[in-house]
Design a protein that fits this description.
This protein is an alpha/beta fold and about 160 residues long. It contains 4 helices and 6 strands, in the order βαβαβαβαββ. Helices cover about 35% and strands about 30% of the residues. A 4-stranded mixed β-sheet has the order 3-4-6-5. Strands 1-2 form a two-stranded parallel sheet. α3 packs parallel to α4.
Length: about 160
């Protein structure tokens, strides 16, 4: 969507297969909307390292690792929840160096079942390290989904 609106886009993923799939999707999008290939760059990389790779940006839009896929994860699995929370907060900390003043972060945070303590913790802690929650969380999930996405929009103070 950002490309169609004329923004320059940079994307990364730790998984080369995901980067390759994204390249394929962007080639199709470029052909349909006549977008020049130099308006986007993709690479294998860690989201926490965005500032070191590309410099200051206006916004970061991300769906990070949402945890185990295809399982009915319960919040008793504190190890997974703690790992995800640490990942997201490491990202928010790293992104502070790469966002322009009043830069935005749009992020999908997972919730499993009816419990959303992970979402609450990440929102509270992101605010404590220098972000303002502008809107959300907006819950998105298909009826059969085991993981719900909680879309949040933050602004760097």
């Amino acid at each position: 969507e950002a490309l169609v609106l004329g923004f320059e886009v940079v994307g990364s993923d730790l998984d080369q297969k995901q980067v390759d799939r994204t390249k394929e999707n962007l080639r199709w999008l470029s052909s349909v909307y006549n977008i020049q290939p130099n308006h986007y760059k993709l690479s294998v990389g860690d989201a926490r390292e965005i500032p070191q790779k590309i410099g200051k940006v206006d916004a970061i839009v991300t769906e990070p690792d949402l945890g185990p896929n295809g399982t009915n994860l319960r919040y008793e699995n504190a190890g997974t929840i703690n790992r995800l929370e640490k990942l997201y907060l490491d990202c928010f900390s790293g992104w502070k160096k790469g966002l322009k003043p009043q830069g935005k972060v749009v992020i999908a945070l997972p919730s499993f079942g009816e419990n959303s303590i992970l979402v609450k913790n990440v929102i509270d802690k992101a605010q404590a390290i220098g972000y303002i929650l502008l809107s959300g969380p907006y819950i998105y999930a298909r009826p059969q989904a085991k993981v719900k996405r909680n879309i949040c929009v933050f602004e760097l103070k």
